[in-house]
Design a protein that fits this description.
Length: 157
């Protein structure tokens, strides 16, 4: 019998600034809310975007990095799993929620550019990048050499 599978991958924008706090044991946790749009037809047959909102929790050193570098409007990718939790509210009623517990967070735009699609790398709690915990710029800024003729018309395809 195959094993169960619990995996979620989302790409969207933050709806608010991250909230970084610490557990009683001192572990950092960062709460973020992600808006992910799906496209479909409305009642009149016109194409429309419908936002879906997801609560995401990020733990450990990755939570500290997310709290420091993310802000409302940033485009990120999240790879994680669904987690169900239950608690008793201050009014005595039992509450429950399903949230995404992030394994990896990917920063998909630069800090100053909320609409850019350029990747500025990502950071993984499971496999930290060399050189520290900060996001690494993986884009290649080296310009490509032009063909000897200087024009792209010589490309046969």
């Amino acid at each position: 019998m195959p094993a169960d599978l619990n995996r979620v991958t989302l790409v969207g924008r933050l709806t608010r600034d991250p909230e970084l706090r610490h557990t009683a044991g001192g572990d950092p946790i960062c709460s973020i809310r992600l808006a992910v749009s799906s496209r479909g037809r409305d009642d009149q047959g016109n194409w429309a975007d419908k936002p879906n909102y997801f609560d995401v929790s990020v733990w450990g050193r990755q939570a500290e990095t997310a709290g420091q570098y993310l802000a409302k409007g940033r485009r990120i990718g999240v790879d994680g799993a669904l987690a169900w939790r239950e608690w008793t509210a201050q009014d005595g009623n039992k509450r429950q929620a399903v949230e995404v517990r992030a394994r990896d967070i990917y920063f998909l735009d630069s800090r100053g550019d909320g609409d850019s699609g350029a990747s500025s790398g990502g950071w993984s709690q499971q496999a930290p990048r060399q050189g520290g915990d900060l996001p690494v710029d993986t884009t290649d800024a080296t310009p490509q050499a032009q063909p000897a003729g200087g024009a792209d018309d010589d490309i046969p395809f």
